[in-house]
Structure formats: structure tokens, C-alpha cells
Write a structure and sequence with these properties.
binds zinc ion; 389 residues; NE0471 N-terminal domain-like; binds N-oxalylglycine; 25% helix; 2 domains; alpha+beta
Length: 389
């Protein structure tokens, strides 16, 4: 092993020490790690709570000049470090590889959702009893939501409250104002356009929360009225095209805060937020769009026209036939949508032609993805000491 603080050459066979980081040969590749990062992720029983694997080490106590005094690579499998704070640590090669934070490794681990448009006629469809009773089917259903942001579960027992029972199998109900289980049917006293027989253009629900519900389950107990076909639209696909065609319009939608409100006689929800919010990698994380719930813009004078210009472009894309998938659901169909990605809607229906009643509950995408990881057995953090010699 060569230890050299000045050598800028990174060799796949040797650990190379730099001023603030090291390059470690791991299974024929080189993994670069900062000293502070390695010290922070020591997995010894002093640094972790043995019972729970949580961090005991208080990160802010790591000295800024933390560095190794000696480093040894044991048989290509274990990295041993003695630190200048007197501590010793060990890391398995497998752990170092799994946590490689090079651009290439991070790119390789990144989940890429499959964006879709109006040609996506085969929405992933599952049988209720399968999803509820068979882990593989439930994993496939959760995977579909992760990939496409939409899935249909058929033959849900057409019983009021069934949607909540289903929600509790895959996660937790996110309660909001109004009802815990929302009833959507023709109701001349209802507080929402959903309670009329009119068309509902593609929208996301509850944009009037700072964090809108990120999953929505719509369970069609009975759908026997004429019309009322459902629509789904991949909002992230629309935004990807808008961004490519008119990045200024896209930026405007990320910047201008829009007020949204949903209210009834007794309840109120209100927030202001831009239609598009990005994650720290600049990718769309949250999209909210509900034309009927927007309140008067309250922004700087110079933002008004750019906003309407961008909104016109976006709205026309959403209203076009290029992205929308329409289909008629049957009694017992349960439609799941990723509420920060996929817009849902319905065509107008004839309220005198037959019964139409659906129940929705909201959930959180994070809980569904956690459920998927638990079912896959991949949720527990890997110990850096697993397999060390
Ligand atoms: C809703 C909704 C669609 C429908 O309840 O949020 O959009 O098919 N309903 O009635
Ligand atoms: Zn330790
Ligand atoms: Zn809705």
C-alpha cells in the first residue's frame, strides 16, 4: 500500500491519500471519499446505537481537520483507518461501493420514471385480491406507480369504505380537510365542481396545501351513468416538453407563486405555491395544476404577463389530445395516481342516466415507496462493518 499526500495519481491497486479525501481501490474500481464523510459514517458501536443502527456520533463534533494517520486495505475487502482524533474505523468494500457518490455512480442509482403521453393505452392493471394477498403482485403495483405514476386495480369490492381498507394495506391515509373518505357523486349541495355533472379538466387535487397529497386513490363503487370517462395525463411529460421547447416559460412556472383555495361552508384550505417545484438536482418534484381552484394572482406587476404567457402554453398542452389518456372505469375499479405528477379528470356525464359514485382517499407517495422497499427487504441501511475482516 502506498500512502502519499502529494501524489495526484489515482491507482486502482492502491489507496491514495489527498489533502481532504482518499481514493480507495474497490473491486477494480476507484472510489473517492472525503475524510469527514468517512469519519461521519464510522459504524463502530461507539459511533452507532448498536440496537437501532442510528448515528450516535454527533457530526458537528468531528474536527474540521480530520484526516487519517494510517490506512490499510486488507485483502481488497476491508478498509481500515486510524484517525488523527485517535479513533479507528473499518469499512467493507461492498459498503464503499454501494455508497460511492461519484457522478457516475449516482447517475447509475438514479431512478428514471418512464414518461408517457396519449399513446400510453396500456395503463398497468392489477387484480384487487392479488395486490392485497400476494407480495409479488403488490410490489408490481407499487413499481407501476413508481414508474408511471398511475395504476388501476380491478374488482375492488364495491363497498363503501373499501378504499380506506385498501389504503391501509399499502400505506397510511393522509387526512385532509373535508372528509377522510371523499364521496364524489352528483350532489347539488356539494362544495366542489366534482359534485356536479360537468367535465373536470385534468387537474391535481388539493393544490391548496403547501404539500398536496402525493397519492390519490379513486375507487369507483358504481359507474353506470352515460359519459364520465376518466382521463389521466402525465404532467411530468408535459413539463419535460415545455422545458425543452420554451425554457423561459418553464422557469416562469417554477418562479411565480399561485394562490389556490378549496373551501366549503365549514372548511378552508389555502396556500400559494408555484405550479412547478424542482428537487436539488433540478428535476421536477412537485407539479400542481387545477385551473378551477386558482385565486387572483398576487405577484409583482412585471410577473403577471409572463405568467399568463407561460400558463397559456402549459394549459394548451394539457388540454390538447397529445398527452391525455381517456377510458371508462367499471364498478369496482380503483384508480391510483401520483398526485404530484399525474393529472386526473373526467368527461361530463348525464346524472339522470345511471348511478355514479366514487370514493377517494389521499395518501403519501413516500409511504408507498417505503412499503415497496420493506416488501423487497431492501429498507435497512447496510452496515459498513458487514463482511469486514
Ligand atoms: C376528484 C375527481 C373524478 C371523477 O374527485 O378529485 O377528480 O371521475 N373526480 O369524478
Ligand atoms: Zn466509530
Ligand atoms: Zn380530482
Amino acid at each position: 500500500m502506498t500512502v502519499s499526500r502529494t501524489d495526484n495519481q489515482v491507482l486502482a491497486e492502491e489507496v491514495t491519500l489527498f489533502d481532504r479525501s482518499m481514493a480507495v481501490p474497490v473491486h477494480g474500481e476507484v472510489v473517492r471519499c472525503h475524510y469527514v464523510w468517512l469519519r461521519d459514517n464510522c459504524w463502530c458501536s461507539e459511533c452507532r446505537v448498536a440496537q437501532t443502527q442510528e448515528r450516535r456520533l454527533f457530526t458537528a463534533d468531528i474536527p474540521p481537520d480530520i484526516a487519517p494517520t494510517s490506512v490499510a486495505m486488507d485483502g481488497d475487502e476491508t478498509l481500515h483507518i486510524r484517525w488523527n482524533d485517535g479513533h479507528t474505523s473499518a469499512y467493507s468494500a461492498a459498503w464503499l461501493q454501494a455508497h460511492d457518490y461519484s457522478d457516475r455512480a449516482r447517475q447509475g442509482r438514479r431512478h428514471e420514471p418512464t414518461l408517457w403521453d396519449a399513446t400510453f393505452t396500456s395503463i398497468p392493471t392489477f387484480e384487487h385480491d392479488d395486490v392485497v394477498t400476494r407480495d409479488e403482485a403488490q410490489i408490481a403495483y407499487l413499481e407501476a406507480i413508481r414508474q408511471y405514476g398511475v395504476a388501476i386495480v380491478r374488482n375492488t369490492p364495491p363497498v363503501p369504505g373499501e378504499v380506506e381498507r385498501f389504503a391501509q394495506v399499502i400505506g397510511h391515509v393522509r387526512e385532509t380537510a373535508f372528509e377522510r373518505i371523499h364521496n364524489v357523486r352528483h350532489d347539488p349541495t356539494g362544495y366542489s365542481v366534482a359534485h356536479t355533472a360537468s367535465e373536470l379538466r385534468p387537474h391535481t387535487d388539493m393544490p391548496s396545501y403547501r404539500w398536496p397529497p402525493s397519492i390519490q386513490l379513486l375507487n369507483f363503487l358504481v359507474n353506470e351513468a352515460t359519459g364520465g370517462e376518466s382521463t389521466v395525463t402525465d404532467g411530468w411529460a408535459v413539463l419535460a416538453d415545455l422545458r425543452a421547447e420554451d425554457s423561459a416559460a418553464f422557469d416562469t412556472l417554477c418562479r411565480v407563486a399561485v394562490p389556490f383555495q378549496v373551501f366549503s361552508e365549514e372548511e378552508d384550505t389555502f396556500t400559494t405555491a408555484p405550479l412547478v417545484e424542482l428537487d436539488t438536482d433540478g428535476r421536477v418534484r412537485t407539479f400542481r395544476f387545477s385551473n378551477h381552484l386558482v385565486q387572483p394572482l398576487d405577484v409583482g406587476f412585471d410577473e403577471v404577463e409572463p405568467f399568463y404567457t407561460a400558463y397559456r402554453k402549459l394549459g394548451r398542452m394539457i388540454a390538447s389530445d397529445r398527452y391525455k389518456v381517456a377510458f371508462k372505469t367499471s364498478n369496482g375499479d380503483l384508480l391510483t395516481v401520483h398526485g404530484h405528477r399525474v393529472l386526473h379528470g373526467r368527461l361530463a356525464f348525464d346524472a339522470t342516466s345511471g348511478a355514479r359514485h366514487l370514493q377517494d382517499v389521499y395518501m403519501e407517495y413516500d409511504d408507498l415507496m417505503a412499503r415497496r422497499r420493506v416488501l423487497l427487504g431492501s429498507h435497512r441501511p447496510k452496515s459498513a462493518l458487514e463482511g469486514v475482516r
